[in-house]
Amino acid sequence: MRSTLTDVAREAGVSAATVDRVLNNRPGVRARTREIVLEMAQRLGYIAESPNGVPPRALHGDVIRLDFALPAGTNSFIKMLHRHIEAQALARPDLDVHIATTEGFNPDRLARLLQDLRGQTQGVGVIALDHPTVREAIRSLSANDIKVVTIASDILHVPRVAYIGIDNRAAGRLAGYLLNRFMGPERPGKVALFAGSLAYRGHEEREMGFRHILTEESPNLEIVEMREMLDDREKAYSEASALLERHPDLAAIYNVGAGNTGIARALKERGRAKEIIFLGHEVTDGTKELLLDGTLDAVIDQNPRVEAREALNILSHSVRGLSYELHQPRLQVIFRESIPEI
Questions:
Q1: How far, in Å, CA of 153 to CA of 306, rounded?
Q2: Which residues pair with 100 in a beta bridge?
Q3: Which of 115, 146, 274, 336 could bond 141 through an S-S bridge, CB–CB 3.0 to 4.6 Å?
Q4: What are the structural domains, with CATH classification, of the chain?
Q5: 124 vs 114: CA distance, rounded Å
Q6: Global pTM?
């Protein structure tokens, strides 16, 4: 039975992530630790000897072709994820990474893109709509021995290697908890929900979690409307403008998807940016500005850098038949005083 990356990590007394960094010649590992990992990997037969001093490649496979299917459009989080995948792929000579975009809310186009990858790739990462045609496309990829991971929004009952992302139902509950703390336990108020599309299971789960905790802990708060914006800033602006006209006494908005800048523009034009509690998702250049000027009260973040790294790692390990300990991104609440570098 051949050794695995986990075996090397255990015998070297380090984490699997450290072994991965050493074997792929990435920075962040002390010289002595690097020597120990390489020596142990060679002793266990996980890598070949390296007579010229160049960090050796793993024995189990050459360059791996990976493909990513991401939604097109103005969603800043998706653009950040796209950039992180590209940047990290450049530092991985063992990977040949390709990224394709498709209309974000058209399941048939996404399904065709996935079907077209059969015979071309060894692994696929996808932000997928939960739709029958997409589920069948993923099953077809798996039947052709192509490894699949879902990113940011999961699909159940398909043969994927892993889901990489936050617990979206917990994120929705967290938003409800924050709103309850901002509003206070007794203050009544109207609340509006915005989503990109409930065809994304992640958006649906956030809505579900949010509704559940308000029912449990905030009976004084009433959800008056739910609007889908298809992650379009202009549509978000027009929907928010109409919402504010219909509900002049609106107390709070929770946006489970993109389009925060459109909602913010509507709030500012009506002079209600500091009056209405506004909760959103993802730290981007746009949401940073809205946190700083007080329009957004809090942002619930997932880390696209971590998601890109984990997607590349788990797909490449799975293709090689190696075990890998997945490190999911942490669910974080960001306020104006704790904005991270992105």
A1: 15
A2: 69
A3: 146
A4: 1-60 (1.10.260.40), 64-165+304-330 (3.40.50.2300), 168-301 (3.40.50.2300)
A5: 8
A6: 0.81
